[in-house]
Amino acid sequence: MRALLVVAITLVVPERMAAASCVEEATALREHLTAESRDARIWNTLWAIGFGVAAAGQATLVLTETKPIGTYDTDFEEQMYVGTVKASLGLAVRLVLPLRIKVPASDGDPCVEVITLRDAVTEAGRRERRSVWFTLIGGTAVNVAGAILLWQRRNLETGALSFATGVPVGPLSAYTQPRKSWKLWRERRATWIVGVGGVAGDPRSLWIAGEF
How many separate domains does the chain show? Predict the structure, then answer.
């Protein structure tokens, strides 16, 4: 009887501990993804509105031939044209290629769900990383192109002014976007690639995986 009792405890206790650990991690990851998904929607919406207002405002200044400070001239007019195009491109990106963080549906087995949620965090981290670099590089490229165009069509001062007023937008947009999944993925990637227990509900299993 004692031998049987020891065997039963050996098998049951780790299984319960693993199940509890799976539930805890699954809950934490789901809460993380839910918050990131909400923050991504807010970020997309606010920047879409900002770009839309900027495009409409600059177009209005051209149509009404208005310059808030100083005299309206051709240099300012073409600068506003370029600014309208840049803001319109920013709006289009936020509408066509928004940052979306997916939250997987709940699964009956918490240990299986943990694997699905880890994959979702990995995908979210990659999406956030791509979005940051695309925003930084794309925004800078658009501003450089606009500055060169104005330099060639008007003068260096007009091109430099357009670049100086537009180039901070890219970094500001990139660094205000949600990036917690990217950080979490970087921090836990090694422990997620090689792990022990909790696979398919079997706490005694060993799994090893790799990224190539």
Answer: 1
Looking at residue 204, its amino acid is R
Residue keyed to tokens 């940052």:
99
pTM: 0.80
- Whether 205 maps to a domain, the answer reads no
Residue 85 lies in a domain: yes
User: Which residues span the domain enclosing 135?
Assistant: 2-96+105-192
**Alpha-carbon span 91 to 116, nearest angstrom:** 33
Q: Indicate whether 161 belongs to any domain.
A: yes
Q: Is residue 202 one of the residues assigned to a domain?
A: no
Cα separation, 61 vs 39, whole angstroms: 33
Q: How far apart are CA 168 and CA 136, in angstroms?
A: 10
Sequential pLDDT tens for the chain (212 residues):
444 333 333 334 344 445 678 899 999 999 999 999 999 999 999 999 999 999 999 999 999 999 999 999 999 999 999 999 999 999 999 999 999 999 998 877 888 899 999 999 999 999 999 999 999 999 999 999 999 999 999 999 999 999 999 999 999 999 999 999 999 999 988 777 655 444 444 544 544 444 43
d(CA 211, CA 200): 20
Assigned token pair, 195: 């792990």
Q: How far apart are CA 212 and CA 200, in angstroms?
A: 24
Locate 141 and state its tokens. 């490229």
